[in-house]
Amino acid sequence: MTGQARQRSADSATAQGGHASLKCRLGRSDLRAVPEVRRALRELLAQWGKPGRSEVAELLTSEIVTNALVHTEYDAVLTATVEPERLRVEVRDYTNRRPRARVPHADDGTRTNGRGLMLVQSLADAWGIRPYGSGKVVWFELDSGPA
Questions:
Q1: How confident is the model at residue 41 (pLDDT cuts 50, 70, 90)?
Q2: H or E stretch at 71
Q3: Which domains does the chain have, with CATH numbers?
Q4: How confident is the model over 82-96, as pLDDT tens digits?
Q5: Residue 66 near residue 58 (C-beta atoms within 8 A)
Q6: For residue 117, what pLDDT band results from cuts at 50, 70 and 90?
Q7: Among 36, 117, 120, 133, which has the minimal tally of Cβ within 10 Å of its Cβ?
């Protein structure tokens, strides 16, 4: 991994009794971390054996990581936990400002940004935002059922 995302160490991708986890520190505004996080998540999810769900997990992870890197002025921390029946991904940042889902309008034309939380809302089995210290955590869960 390049940039701040490389701080993910072998110790941070662990497997213990039926679940595995991944933890990455993401550097402020380092959008190169997004494909790196997707790759690390893909490796983690290979043992989950839910290909359709894994693709959705990568997409949703990209969205919440990108939001944290673009809309805050600090680092962020990603934690992903895989259990036999579910995946939980959390991105913690150090800004209290809560993200807002935007409803696209017809006059947006070809504009593609601003729709990430709508994807999370529509594709995740559960999701939310909770305060955490001097910031917040945006999280989602996917059950292991069909995509």
A1: very high
A2: helix 51-71
A3: 3-104+111-143 (3.30.565.10)
A4: 998 899 999 999 988
A5: no
A6: confident
A7: 133
And the tokens for 58?
């990568």
Distance, CA of 40 to CA of 54 (rounded, Å): 12
**Cβ count within 10 A of residue 131:** 10
**Block residue for tokens 């955490």:** 132
Q: What is the mean pLDDT of residues 100-112?
A: 56
Query: What secondary structure letter does DSSP report for 98?
Result: P
Structure tokens at 82: 């895989």
Q: Do the beta carbons of residue 93 and residue 76 sit within 8 Å? A: yes
**Residue 50 confidence (pLDDT):** 78
pTM above 0.85, yes or no: no
* Sheet bearing 14-16, strands edge to edge: 14-16, 19-26, 76-83, 86-93, 135-143, 126-132
Find the radius of gyration of the CA atoms of the chain: 15
Q: Quick one: tokens of 35? A: 């494909």
Across-strand partners of 129?
138
